[in-house]
Every structure is written in C-alpha cells, then in structure tokens.
Design brief:
With about 650 residues, the chain is α+β, with helices and mostly antiparallel strands. Helices cover about 25% and strands about 25% of the residues. The protein has 13 helices and 25 strands. The protein is elongated and about 180 Å long.
Length: about 650
C-alpha cells in the first residue's frame, strides 16, 4: 500500500524525500550561487586593495606637488615642475598593471594654493566574469594644502660691529650693499615671504602674490637683536625694574655759601722799572679752600683780586687796588651751590623716575653729573643690566653652568621679579650717561674710591668702549602685512662687541610659555597649542672686553660675574659656557632651536659650538648672503607643516 502511494507522487517530490543518490544533483544546483559568493569575495578584495593603494599614491602625489610649489605657483611641462613631481611620486607608488589593473589615468591641478588630484583604474574581474561582470572602474580623489599650525618664531640676531663687513670678512662693504647686515635683512624678509606667504619688496624668487596674511592659524614673529646688550627694558612692566641701582659713577661735592665780607684798599710798592710794576699789579689768589683729600663740614675761603691803579715814574712807586672777599662755605651736597670736587666710585642711583606707570616709561631723569656738578638729563635707551648671577672664581666657567645653578637668576628664563625692588630678581636700566672711567693720577685702572677736581673722566655714553644699545627688541606679534615688518628689519644696524649669551637668554624669555610673558605666550586666545621656534643667527666668534659696559656693568670694576679682575679671555670663556648652557635649557623645553653661522671668518671651535647648540639637524653654515637667504627659506619651509586635507 505504501509503495502504491509513493508512485503517485511527482518526480520532484520523490527527489525531495529521497535519501539515496541525491548529492550530485544538489551540488549542481548550488554551483552558480557558490561561484557568485566566492568569486565576488575575491574580486571585491582586489578592488579594495586597488582603491587603497591608489588613494595612497594620489595623496603622496598631491603632497609632493604642493611641496614642489614651495612658495611659488603651480607649474607643468616636465619632471621638475610641480605637476611633474606629483605625477612621478604617484607612479612610484602605483603604476598601470599593478594588481592586474588595466587602463590607468591620473591628473593634478592647483587653485588658491590647494593641490587637487584624481585617479581612476580599470580592474578586470576574474571569477565574476561567469556572472557577466567583466570589469569595474575605481576612482579616487585627493587634496593637499600648506597648513601652518599656531606658530611662534623668535629671531635672536647678531647685530655686532662685524656685521658691517662683507661675508668674506673684508671691511669694504661698510654696512652697505653686500655687507652681512644687508644680507641678514634680505634673508629675514625672504623667511617672512616663505612662512607668512605675503610678498615683500625683497626679490626672493617665486614671490607670493598675497599682500595680507590669509591663514587661519596664529602666526607670530619676534626679535631680539643683540650685541653687548639687548634693548628690552621698556617692553617690561615698571614692576620688573629696581628703584635703585649701583653704578660706576661720580658724585659732586658741593658747598653752600654764607654772606660775604668784602673790603677794598690800595697797596703801594717801589720798583725800579715800570714793567716790574705791571707784573706786580695784575692777578688774584685764593686761600682757605680744603684739599682734595678732606671735605670739612665748613670752611672760610678768601679771594683776593689785584688791579693796577697807577705808576709814578718820578718815584718808581706802583699803586694797585685790592678787592677782597671772605666767604663761609658749608658742606651741603643736597642744596649746595658751589661745586668743589668729584668723587668717583660705585654708588647707588635712584632710577624709579624712569617709571611712568604700568608699562609706560619716562626717557630720562635728572642728575648732577654735568661739568662742575650741573644738572644734566640722564637718558635711557631701554637696554638693561642683568639681575644676580653666580661668580666664577677658578677661571674655568664650564663646570659652573652645567646644569645652570638655581641661584643664577640672570640665567633663569621664567622667574618673575618679586619681593620688593631691592631684591636680586629685578633688572636695572643701563645708563651710559652716568657710568665713568675711574682712573687716578697715575692709572686708568684704579679700583678704589677716587676724588679729583678733574673733568677729564668721560661717561660711557657714545665712547668707543662704552654703551652700545641695539634697536629695541620686539615681542611676539602678528605681522599680517609686510610694510611694518620690513621697516623694523631695515632698522637693524651693526655696532659693538659680541655677547651671544645675553641674546639667547632674552630670546628664551620672550618665547617661554611659562615665564614673564606667560599670559601672552601660553596658548592662543582661544586656548589652542603653539609650536615654538628660535632662529639664532651669528657671524662669528665671541668678542668681549673687560672695559665694555655690558649687562653686567663695566667688567673690570663691577666684577659681577667674577671674583677677580677679568681679562678678555676670561670673559669669552664665560660667554661661551653660558651660551652652551642656555642652548641646552631651550631644547629641553620643547622649543626647536635653529642656528645659522654666517660668513667665512668663523673659527672651527665656534662652528662646533654653534652646531652643538642647535636642535638635531637644525644647524646651517652660510658663507655668503645668497646661501643665507636659501637657509632662511628652508627653515621657513620646514616650520610650515604640510598636512593632507580631504
């Protein structure tokens, strides 16, 4: 009965219910779906691989093309053009035939500084052909543009007297065309063009067309020109400078006069001849004035003047008039009217009169330093005297500055002055008008207090060994247009000796995010982070003198850095040791330190020192102005961060 019922079912029903000999038919029925599943997976994997690699090639080409533009325009027509560079890099990463691809196309273009690229490749199918899919076309697109992150750049620039010379060291350039200072000005302007992408009047090659900075990122540049000193004082708040400061100066000794007692009478004398009479009758004398070695509280002085009255030839008798004044003098430096003598010594001077409130300053104060103690204006250009430092005592400063002693406040980048303006953490104004050579009757190098009536001592202001104050520094600021930037750069002028350490110290202070300008430097106004760079350029060796009036006073007399009377070699060693220590300190603060040596006269020891100062791979040696300009453009290009954008 069961067999009969089974016979009544159709073929497919029997096949479905059959448990014997049905594998082959089932397999045949599943072949087509399996081919689609497996083949599709294989071909899709290859399509994904092609797309990934072609996208990478497109990105690399766009990046290379944008970089090849440098600061110029998009160029085409050969392997060395920006378009050619983009295509070459693409081909190096992906070429026709890779991964079985067929026809490959790619192209790049540029608009407003953004390089755009597209690429497509035909990918033949393999297993999927059985389903009628013969090929697929893969398309990718890419862009690259120059994006500058929030960036601070502080220039520490050598503007010493040797910058007047030609790069080969000859003096024929005299600060004009072809001089090192002219080359430096041009190089800084070309740096500005390369980084800010704003055109200047300088011919830098492939000049940008923009006249105003159009970037979204904060970009600030600052300057510390240096020679013997730095001009930073008037950029500080009043509260950072002391109210009183010690100087190698002079102080007048004055007397106030009492009421005079006067008298007149005639004297006679006999002479054998008239000419003797004439000699006797003319002249004056004074008695009672104190010697230079003592200053009594009061004294009486008598002045006598003799005037010829007549001559009697019959008797050879001369008659002269005698006018006598007797005056009481009282020692009174504050209110005295009669100048008696000078005292040359290290003495405190009240300098609080320069403070006009907040960050405003007066340019001068009055002091009795003129001839015969008259009041003269004491001018302040803005250069400073440094705060407390550690003194060298063993003639080898290298062991004192590694690491920097915590008590050396002059090498402290961040500490804000505090504790009252008599404290060691404050700075003082550099005043060449009040600083004088102090030499005795036999030696210019007298070290003790010296008193004299002589006016031969001259102040350090304007003297050949004296005060050399460079142009005022510039705090970090945005220079969105070129004109004010160029005006400042053109004001850089060479003068004075070479103290590298003072320039580097203040370059670090002006860029530090945690120091005296922390409120301005810690982050952008919107709280974004900042990349920091110092560019240190010098044309040569340290050059000091123990008679220089520097940020540490007059070295031979003040001895703020030594326990002994230093010579030039001692001071050179101190500057070099302190420079090395400051370079290390800067690099330890995640500030990139670029160093450029300029000119052919730099000693091998200085080259080694400067190379060691720089961050890794950031040292340049320019023998001429063209190379210097190229170096500065390269630094700008490396600071500018190339980033891919979608």
């Amino acid at each position: 009965m069961a067999r009969k019922n089974n016979a009544k079912k159709g073929f497919l029903a029997r096949l479905l219910n059959s448990t014997t000999a049905n594998v082959l038919p089932l397999t045949a029925a599943l072949v087509i779906p399996l081919l689609g599943l497996v083949g599709g997976g294989m071909d899709m994997s290859r399509l994904y691989l092609v797309k990934t690699r072609m996208q990478q090639a497109c990105d690399a080409g766009a990046l290379a093309g944008r970089k090849a533009m440098a600061n110029g325009s998009w160029t085409t027509g050969g392997a060395t053009t920006s378009d050619g560079r983009a295509t070459t890099i693409f081909d190096g990463n992906f070429k026709q035939g890779d991964y079985g691809t067929g026809t490959l196309t790619k192209s790049y273009s540029e608009a407003s500084g953004v390089v755009s690229g597209t690429a497509s490749a035909v990918v033949p199918m393999t297993v999927m052909k059985v389903l009628g899919f013969t090929s697929r076309t893969i398309n990718v697109a890419c862009t690259a543009k120059m994006e500058i992150p929030n960036t601070d750049v502080m220039f520490v620039l050598d503007v010493t007297g040797s910058m007047r010379d030609c790069p080969d060291g000859s003096s024929s350039c005299a600060g004009g065309a072809g001089s090192k200072i002219a080359g430096l000005r041009s190089a800084v302007k070309c740096f500005y063009e390369a980084l800010v992408q704003v055109n200047t009047t300088e011919v830098c090659g492939n000049d940008p067309a923009a006249s105003t900075y159009g970037g979204l990122a904060q970009l600030r540049l600052g300057f510390i020109p240096y020679n013997v000193n730095v001009n930073v004082g008037k950029l500080l708040p009043n509260s950072y400078l002391a109210d009183s400061w010690d100087y190698q100066t002079r102080e007048g000794v004055f007397y106030r006069t009492g009421p005079p007692a006067t008298g007149s009478y005639n004297e006679t004398a006999s002479f054998s001849r008239k000419r003797y009479c004439n000699n006797w009758a003319i002249g004056s004398d004074a008695t009672g004035f104190p010697s230079d070695t003592s200053i009594p509280d009061s004294f009486t002085a008598t002045t006598t003047t003799y005037t010829k009255v007549g001559y009697d030839s019959r008797t050879d008798i001369c008659t002269r008039r005698v006018d006598q004044s007797t005056i009481v003098y009282t020692h009174d430096d504050a209110n005295g009217t009669y100048f008696h003598t000078w005292i040359y010594n290290k003495m405190p001077i009240t300098v609080s009169g320069f403070k006009a409130g907040g960050s405003s300053w007066n340019n001068s104060i009055n002091r009795k330093i003129g001839e015969d103690g008259t009041i003269e204006a004491v001018n302040w250009n803005g250069c400073i005297e440094e705060r407390y430092t550690v003194k060298n005592s063993d003639y080898d400063p290298s062991d004192e500055w590694s690491p920097i002693p915590s008590s050396a406040l002059d090498m402290d980048i961040d500490t804000v002055p505090s504790g009252g303006t008599a404290n060691n953490s404050y700075w003082g104004p550099m005043l060449g008008d009040v600083v004088f050579d102090r030499y005795s009757d036999t030696s210019r190098w007298g070290s003790s207090r010296y008193r004299t009536t002589s006016e031969k001592m001259t102040s350090y202001n304007g003297s050949s060994m004296g005060e050399t104050c460079p142009v005022q520094a510039k705090k970090l600021q945005s220079w969105n247009t070129a004109s004010p930037f160029e005006t400042y750069v053109n004001s850089l002028s060479p003068n004075g000796n070479t103290y590298h350490d003072i320039g580097m110290i203040w370059g670090a202070r002006f860029i530090s995010p945690t120091g005296i300008f922390a409120s301005e430097n810690a982050s952008t106004p919107t709280g974004q982070s900042i990349q920091r760079h110092i560019i240190f350029m010098t044309d040569g060796d340290t050059q000091t003198s123990n008679s220089n009036y520097s940020a540490y006073g007059v070295h031979w007399w003040d001895r703020r850095q030594t326990t002994y009377a230093p010579n030039r070699n001692n001071l050179d060693d101190i500057v070099n040791a302190r420079l090395a220590a400051m370079c290390t300190e800067i690099k330890n603060r995640n500030i990139t330190l670029w160093v450029v040596s300029f000119g052919t006269g730099v000693s091998s020891s200085t080259i080694a020192r400067l190379s060691s100062c720089a961050s890794s791979g950031k040292f340049f040696n320019a023998s001429n102005s063209a190379t210097l300009m190229s170096n500065f453009r390269q630094i700008a290009a490396e600071i500018a961060d190339l980033r891919l954008t979608s």
